[in-house]
Design a protein that fits this description.
It is a single chain. The protein is mainly β. Among the domains are: about 1-80, Sandwich (Immunoglobulin-like), CATH 2.60.40; about 90-170, Immunoglobulins (Immunoglobulin-like, Sandwich); about 180-255, Immunoglobulins (Immunoglobulin-like, Sandwich), CATH 2.60.40.10; about 265-345, Sandwich (Immunoglobulin-like), CATH 2.60.40; about 350-425, Sandwich (Immunoglobulin-like); about 430-455 and about 475-515, no CATH class; about 520-600, Immunoglobulins (Immunoglobulin-like), CATH 2.60.40; about 610-690, Sandwich (Immunoglobulin-like), CATH 2.60.40. Helix 7 packs across helix 10 (about 1610-1635), helix 8 (about 1570-1590) packs across helix 9 and helix 8 packs parallel to helix 10. It is extended. About 30% of the residues are buried.
Length: about 1700
């Protein structure tokens, strides 16, 4: 059997039996350990089938090989088997109350792990697995005093062996032991039960080392009383309480003392008038420390200590007074006392006019007493008193007088020696005390009647709740009066008048109240309602019970309200509109009242039943019902397009209508009727339209019809004056039958009617329509003949239809109007018409037609009438013309004429009707230089004939002379340019001259390119063929008559660049949408918008409009585009480089100018220059070491369009004209103050610069003035370009070589001093990444300061009495001040500003939602302020005024504010700084439509935190919670006493803000909202910078704040305080770091949290600095860098 040990993963299989030290196998021959040696080899018989191997190692894995041999041959089989591990033995435990430590002896053999399990009633409570070589384990968090079953199991492979035992934790000790005297005279021990389990208690009592008590108690006991019979009073004992559980115990002890025994037999041994003596015996047993004696009368007492005495005497007592003497026995802090009463003997005053004498009977026999009372040595009274008496009252005495009493004892004939006592009667009290305030709130006047008897003086005291405020002594010889000043208003005082006589006093007390103070600044406003007034005021000073507000009218009180003292406003309703009320605010304190009055006027009511009726084409009649309430007057204002037409008409309050005249016909007006009451007004608006004017000069001209059988009419008219929407023209027969009605646009002045009956008379009505109003005019006329009816001036054509039957021919007879036969003609039977010639023009004829058959005529003749056309007049000429009139004459027409109509066109006179006898007419009132056309219409019956003639006012030659020399026509007006239909065209539009005559317009342009001009209207042209991007100058000229001209010039229209038309957006909108916004478009690009209407699958024609987007800043080039080092050439003072035009895209507009940005920097960050304009000039860079970047002058772009050519070569630092020229061309006194006067000076040698090219699409306006907000973009900064060193001459080189060793020695010495005395000089770098709002003017460049450099930076600022700090703050003075504040300055908003010089900028002001009928209701004096996280992180606002509290809460609600910071008191130094805008208690209050309720208030020493619930009655949203942080120790215009307080407050607020439920702005306010508010915001931002970036930019932070609200961080001391806060924060951090790492104090201003780089030891740091010093010996200064 081969034995091999296998130290690998353990397996056990085919085992029949497993024991710790043996293995039992079946059919086994070989057992071996799996190493390289044989462990055991045994030979068994051929019949053996079992074998046990003993003596093996526990827990070990063995390999058993069974070899079968037969005849020299072998076969084998191998299995693995594992012995069981040995059990854990010698387990011991160590315990305390909550843990157990088990230890054991390491078992024999191999063990993989030890598993220890703790059971509590068969429940596993802890189980831990330890390595096989572990010998102990500790269990924690066990229950004290409990028993646990522990199972310790050894593990080897999958085999285990277990050992079990029971252990117990020690019980816990009892707590809160106390041993104190019990009420029964012993000692009482109390305690609190221990934690865990226990069985019982045992109590021990020790006197020093002697045990007195040993008692067992049950587990439920919590106290034990030690009987006092066996204890000594006053002695100290120790009690021990033992908690027992399962043989284990825990003890706790405490000390206590027995109360000492009291003294025995305490009594009064002796007494007289001023003395009491007490005596006692010591207690029979016990111990004590000393005695403590007290003598007491009322609340007054005296104290005395004694050690071992048994008596005590008290002297200088008051005669006749009852005293209590107490003797306390003390032992430690315990005492036991006994008291006794005693009275001194006395001759005492028993009133103001009596004395009482008491005595004790002397020893021996006494028959009587003899008492004699003397005053000033004169006997006043003599009394003999029986022996049984011991007191006597002496009456009838003078108050306040001094008396002496002699008393003697009489026994028989003997009299004792008299004894004397002196006493004084009490002085009398004063009477008839009068206290008045005289109407003053700060004074009281006191007077009284003097007291009877003897009085030394009076003492008048003024008391406030038993506290003496003032005290005035008054001599008895002085007048009995006095006064008190400087009192609190409305306060109730007690006036105490003490009558004093020697040491005695008598007191009279009365109460009086000062007059309450009046409230401050009462105000009554209408709050936008006509039936209410809101009254508010500043709280009255002093004490008051309530306010009473009265509303009076005509000296009669109409309403009153009582207002609690915590409120300062109230509202009255149901008042009369427009009435001026007297508002009185009374302050009540007790029965006193003070009042102050003001006036308040309700808003007047608007008029009722306002109506507008048109009274014709030029008049409107406005009527209304009177407005309710009081009205001073009405004003009627006429508006057109919201512009006032006439000055308002002021009407009396009794007028209820007004007629508006001289109006434009057909125009829609707004009529505003305003009700005025005092300065207040309310307007009621209604629209009214005048009747449109009727069309004039109606003309009906017969026209041919469209067919031979039809006829037509041409209807023309002259438009009436005024506005109209359209015409409606109706055609009807003379008997009223309507034939046709047509709507006609308002610009059309003629209309054709066709397909009419020839010769038929018609009536045409034209209706001018404006809105719903119309005006009509009617004309009548006869339709023309048929198309070929033969009617001329001298002929008529007759036509008929063939009759029925047979006939031979016709006979036609022509008759004149008188019935005379003019013609008689036979006509063939086959004819149906006949032309009659040679007739008289304009004459009416009658035709009769009969048929002939065999010479017989028809019985009836067919008849018809007709008329020849009248002949036109002849030789129509102008016979006279001057500047204002034209005279026409003509030769009358032949034939019959009824009348002439003479029409002159281009004049409003219209037609003139003349009789047939006229042959001339003169038109007057014409316009000089105008060409007119005169039409003369000849009428004959219903037929007309027309001839026209032309004439111009004044003689033609004179007209030309005047117009060309004196009277040139006026130029056109309202010239404008619109984009044309293509990118190479524009459309010019203008209006004709406002007066005078003109014929046409001519257009010229420069440069004189061959452009194409298309006339679309008399006053518009489309100019095409323009060169893209080129600037053109156009001139439009008015032409009149022979060529007189008036010109207007249009400058600089420019065509756009040619671009391809691309579909940008395709939107489908809902049917009700009438507006849409298209965004994300390219700048400076023409877009065409097409709108089509779609319905039921059909699409309307397109409506198209074109527009051009605005020019924008150029797109920012990518970071890879920048000035390249490869394309640059450096010298010691200049850098030559190239840039390419393709760096900047012209997509947002053409590039106009460039400038070069130069930054001194050796950094490699991928940055752009600061986005400010302008940057400093070269002169600022050279003269101010803090300026690290500058710009050159602007130079125009020479880049051709659409090319990739280079933009040019720039030689920076060479003084070229392109960059501004050399800087030595100017003297210092000529420099432009500010960042102007750019030039190109030499660069510094051996200096790294980073360059950027700035491109402008917009820089100058049309007058070449620089615009306020130019449009520009920058390339990214180049990599550092280092200029060369200046060449050294031979002398310099020799000196350098000779001085090198000396310099080395000086540097070493310098460095030793430098390390101790010189702080680190930080390297200032320009903040190239800082984003600053575009608003405001650039005032200076400051750089962020690293935290490790800040203190040295601050020391520099504070040097020379804060010179640099003051200069830096002065630089901030004008930041942002060039912005507008127009809204804040509106008259309606001035009253909403607490200070008239602290106003919000228009660009950053907070806007509220508009309220009805109040266009200024969106204003509140508040500004958005950016933070480190959001653009609108803060809202800085003023302290609310009484009239703006509603606006403040509305701002909080509408802008989602959850945190409000208040850094002012409501009243400071007697001045109101902020009105209390929150409820004083937890009762909810209304502020406008918002309900505010205070939920909690936490008052801390330096700030108060309140929590409010806000509910909006007009909103369905849930209530909101708002937290109010009120900092209460910050003086106005000053700073808090310590930085720690404000820093902690800012951190507290920031913590709450970061945990707020939303990102709404944080509202911060003080009084004005700039000084303390700005300081708080700046500190909050800077502390966040410090936490996130490790850098501080205080200047930049305040700069940014002032760009958004003026005067932020208002004073220099606040600016300095910010620096001190940052310094103290850094010092605190540095102190913590030094405590954590002792190496850090080596660097005085070094904090590894904020300086980059590894920390090094002192030796390492010195080596680095030494290298830097030796390397830079030739520089001007030495810098030590972190």
């Amino acid at each position: 059997i081969l034995f091999l040990i296998k130290y690998h993963f353990v397996f056990c299989f085919y085992c029949n039996n497993i024991l710790v030290r043996n293995l039992k196998f079946s059919d086994i021959q070989t057992l071996s350990r799996k190493l390289n040696y044989l462990l055991r080899n045994e030979t068994l018989g051929s019949t053996t089938t079992r074998h046990t191997v003993n003596g093996l190692t526990p827990g070990r894995l063995y390999v058993v090989t069974m070899v079968t041999e037969a005849g020299g041959l072998q076969s084998s089989r191998t299995i693995e088997a594992h012995t069981a591990p040995a059990a854990i033995s010698n387990v011991t435990s160590e315990n305390n109350g909550t843990s157990l430590r088990l230890s054991w002896q390491r078992p024999e053999g191999d063990v993989d792990a030890v598993v220890v399990t703790f059971f509590d009633n068969d429940t596993i409570i802890q189980e831990t697995t330890q390595p096989g070589n572990a010998t102990e384990v500790t269990a924690y968090q066990l229950t004290p005093g409990s028993a646990y079953q522990v199972e310790v199991m050894s593990v080897s492979s999958s085999l285990t062996n277990q050992s079990k035992l029971t252990v117990r934790t020690a019980p816990a000790a009892a707590s809160r032991l106390q041993l104190s005297p019990s009420s029964t005279g012993g000692l009482l021990l109390t305690w609190a039960p221990p934690a865990g389990s226990w069985e019982n208690y045992r109590v021990f009592l020790f006197d020093s080392t002697q045990q007195l008590v040993d008692t067992a108690l049950g587990r439920d006991a919590v106290n034990f009383s030690f009987p006092g019979t066996e204890l000594t009073p006053g002695r100290r004992y120790r009690a021990t309480l033992r908690v027992e559980s399962g043989g284990l115990a825990a003890e706790s002890s405490c000390d206590g003392s027995m109360a000492p025994a009291p003294v025995v037999d305490l009594h009064i041994r002796h007494s007289d008038e001023t003395l009491l003596s007490a005596m006692w015996n010591h207690a029979p047993s016990g111990s004590r420390d000393d005695y403590f004696l007290t003598i007491r009368h009322g609340n007054a007492k005296s104290l005395l200590e004694t050690d071992e005495g048994f008596s005590c005497t008290f002297n200088v007592l008051t005669p006749g007074r009852q005293y209590v003497i107490t003797v306390a026995t003390r032992s430690g802090n315990l005492n036991t006392s006994v008291s006794v009463e005693g009275r001194t003997g006395v001759l005492s005053s028993s009133g103001v006019d009596s004395l009482q004498v008491t005595w004790k009977k002397p020893p021996g026999d006494v028959d009587s007493y003899n008492l004699i009372l003397l005053q000033n040595n004169a006997v006043v009274q003599n009394h003999s008193v029986p022996a049984g008496s011991n007191s006597l009252v002496l009456t009838g005495l003078t108050p306040g007088a001094l008396y002496r009493l002699q008393a003697a004892t009489i026994s028989g004939e003997l009299q004792s020696k008299p004894i004397s006592l002196e006493a004084r009667t009490a002085p009398a009290a004063v009477s008839k005390v009068t206290v008045a305030n005289g109407g003053r709130s700060d004074a009281l006047y006191v007077s009284w009647l003097p007291a009877d008897g003897v009085v030394d003086s009076y003492l008048v005291q003024l008391e406030d709740r038993k506290r003496t405020v003032h005290m005035l002594p008054v001599s008895s010889s002085s007048p009995p009066e006095c006064s008190f000043n400087s009192l609190e208003a409305g306060h109730l005082y007690s006036v105490v008048i003490v009558t004093r006589s020697s040491g005695l006093e008598n007191t009279t007390v009365v109460q009086a109240r000062t007059q309450p103070a009046t409230v401050g600044n009462p105000n009554a406003v209408h709050a936008g309602r006509d039936d209410s007034l809101k009254v508010y005021w500043h709280h009255a000073a002093g004490d008051l019970d309530r306010y009473v507000v009265l509303i009076s009218y005509n000296h009669s009180v109409l309403h009153n309200q009582s207002v609690p003292t915590g409120h300062n406003e109230c509202a009255f309703s149901s008042l009369t509109p427009g009435r001026l009320y007297t508002v009185t605010v009374e302050t009540w304190s007790g029965s006193y009242v003070s009042s102050i009055s003001t006036y308040g006027r309700t808003l007047p009511a608007a008029v009722k039943n306002l109506s507008v009726k048109n009274e014709g084409t030029a008049e409107l009649n406005v009527t209304w019902s009177p407005a309710l309430g009081d009205v001073d007057h009405y004003e009627v204002t006429l508006l057109f397009n919201d512009t006032r037409v006439f000055p308002p008409a002021m009407l009396g309050s009794d007028v209820h209508h007004h007629l508006l005249t001289s109006l434009t016909p057909g125009r829609l007006y707004k009529i505003m009727v305003s009700t005025f009451s005092g300065p207040l007004q309310v307007a009621q608006v209604m629209e009214g339209r005048t009747v449109p004017s009727a069309a004039k000069n109606l003309r009906l001209i017969p026209q041919p019809g469209r067919t031979d059988s039809g006829a037509g009419l041409l209807f023309s008219w002259t438009p009436g004056h005024g506005d109209l929407d359209l015409y409606k023209v109706s055609l009807s027969t003379m008997d009223g039958v309507s034939i046709d009605t047509r709507p006609v646009p308002k610009h059309v002045s003629s209309l054709d009617f066709l397909d009419l009956i020839p010769g038929q008379a018609y009536r045409v009505s034209i209706q001018s329509q404006s809105g719903m109003l119309t005006n009509s005019n009617t004309a009548s006329g006869r339709a023309g003949n048929a198309a070929d009816n033969g009617h001329t001036t001298h002929s008529l054509r007759v036509s008929w239809e063939r009759p029925v039957g047979a006939f031979d021919g016709y006979r036609l007879q022509l008759l004149d109007e008188a019935g005379g036969v003019v013609r008689n003609r036979s006509v063939a039977a086959d004819s149906q018409s006949e032309q009659l010639e040679g007739l008289t023009s304009g004459k009416r004829y009658r035709v009769k037609l009969v048929t002939l058959s065999g010479g017989v005529t028809s019985l009836e003749a067919a008849a018809a009438e007709g008329q020849t056309r009248p002949a036109a007049v002849q030789n129509l000429t102008v016979v006279m013309a001057n500047m204002t009139s034209l005279s026409f004459s003509w030769r009358p027409s032949d034939g019959h004429v009824d009348a002439y109509d003479l029409s002159l066109y281009s004049v409003s006179e219209g037609a003139q009707s003349l009789g047939a006898e006229h042959s001339s007419h003169t038109f007057l009132g014409l316009t000089a230089g105008r060409l007119y056309r005169a039409d003369v219409i000849t009428h004959s019956g219903d037929l007309t004939n027309t001839v026209s003639g032309f004439g111009r006012t004044s003689n033609l030659l004179i007209l030309r002379f005047i117009f060309s020399v004196l009277l040139a026509p006026e130029p056109p007006s309202h010239l404008s340019i619109k984009p044309g239909p293509t990118n190479q065209s524009v459309e010019l539009l203008w209006s004709g001259p406002a007066s005078g005559d003109y014929d046409n317009f001519s257009l010229q342009w420069a440069p004189e390119d061959p452009l194409s001009v298309t006339q679309t209207h008399l006053s518009s042209r489309i100019v095409s063929g323009m060169f893209p991007g080129r600037q053109y100058n156009f001139t439009v000229t008015t032409v009149s008559g022979g060529g007189a001209k008036g010109r207007i010039k249009l400058l600089k229209p420019r065509t756009k660049e040619k671009r391809k038309l691309t579909l940008t957006s395709n939107l489908r909108l809902a049917g009700g949408v009438t507006a849409v916004t298209l965004d994300h478009l390219d700048a400076f690009r023409k877009y065409t918008v097409t709108v089509r209407v779609s319905s039921a699958g059909q699409t309307s024609p397109a409506a198209t409009q074109t527009a051009i987007t605005m020019i924008d800043r150029p797109p920012v080039p990518p970071p890879s585009v920048h000035v390249s080092e490869k394309s640059s050439k450096m010298t010691s003072s200049s850098i030559l480089f190239r840039f390419n035009c393709s760096w900047f895209s012209d997509a947002n507009g053409a590039i106009r100018y460039f400038s070069v940005i130069v930054a001194e920097s050796d950094a490699n960050e991928n940055l752009q220059p600061e986005q400010r304009h302008p940057l400093p000039s070269y002169r600022d860079y050279i003269s101010n070491s803090s300026v690290r970047a500058y710009q050159t002058a602007y130079f125009p772009s020479r880049c051709p369009q659409d090319t990739e050519s280079a933009g040019g070569q720039v030689n920076l630092g060479a003084g070229g004209d392109r960059l501004g020229g050399a800087c030595d061309h100017y003297h210092d006194d000529d420099l432009y103050r500010g960042y102007g006067g750019f030039c190109d000076g030499p660069l510094k040698p051996k200096t790294s610069y980073r360059l950027s090219v700035r491109a402008f699409t917009k820089l100058f306006d049309e007058n070449l003035r620089e615009v306020a907000d130019p449009l520009f973009s920058d390339t990214y900064l180049s990599s550092p370009l280092r200029t060369h060193a200046e060449p050294l001459g031979g002398v310099v080189e020799g000196l350098s070589a000779g001085m090198f060793l000396i310099g080395m020695m000086v540097a070493v010495t310098r460095f030793c001093w430098f390390c101790r005395a010189v702080q680190e000089n930080p390297v200032v770098r320009m903040s190239m990444w800082k984003e600053v709002p575009a608003a405001g003017m650039y005032m200076g460049v400051r750089s962020p300061v690293k935290a490790c450099h800040f203190e040295s930076h601050l020391n520099k600022l504070q040097a020379d009495s804060n010179y640099l700090l003051s200069e830096e703050f002065e630089d901030l003075k004008d930041v942002g001040r060039n912005q507008t504040m127009d809204v804040a300055r509106l008259p309606e908003n001035r009253g909403k500003n607490r200070y008239n010089n602290i106003l919000p900028y228009d660009s950053t002001r907070v806007k509220l939602s508009y309220l009805e009928d109040d266009p200024c209701s969106d204003y509140v004096n508040a500004s958005y302020i950016p933070g480190n996280n959001y653009r609108r992180e803060y809202i800085a606002t003023q302290g609310p005024l009484p009239g703006t509290k509603d606006d403040f809460w509305r701002m909080v609600w509408e802008h989602g504010v959850h945190n409000v910071v208040m850094v002012t008191q409501c009243v400071e130094k007697g001045r109101v700084k902020c009105d209390q805008y929150w409820p004083a208690d937890k009762e909810p209050l209304y502020y406008g439509d918002l309900v505010i309720q205070m939920l909690s208030e936490s008052v801390l020493p330096e700030w108060t935190i309140r929590e409010f619930k806000i509910i909006s009655e007009n909103s369905c949203s849930y209530p909101r919670m708002m937290r109010h942080f009120h900092y209460t120790v910050w003086p106005d215009h000053g700073v808090p006493e310590s930085t720690q307080s404000l820093i902690q407050f800012v951190r507290t607020v920031r913590d709450y803000v970061d945990r707020s439920p939303s990102t709404g702005a944080t509202v911060v306010h003080c009084s004005a909202g700039v000084g303390r508010t700005g300081t708080f915001v700046a500190l909050d931002r800077v502390l966040q910078q410090l936490d996130s970036k490790g850098g501080i930019d205080l200047y930049g932070c305040v700069f940014d704040l002032r760009l958004h609200r003026q005067h932020m961080v208002q004073t220099e001391c606040q600016y300095a305080f910010l620096h001190q806060c940052v310094r103290d924060v850094l010092r605190a951090r540095k102190h913590r770091s030094e405590q954590e790492n002792p190496l850090y104090p080596i660097y005085e201003n070094f904090n590894p949290e904020y300086c980059r780089g590894e920390s090094r030891t002192r030796t390492r740091t010195r080596a680095l600095v030494w290298f830097h010093l030796t390397f830079d010996l030739n520089v001007d200064f030495v810098s030590v860098k972190c």
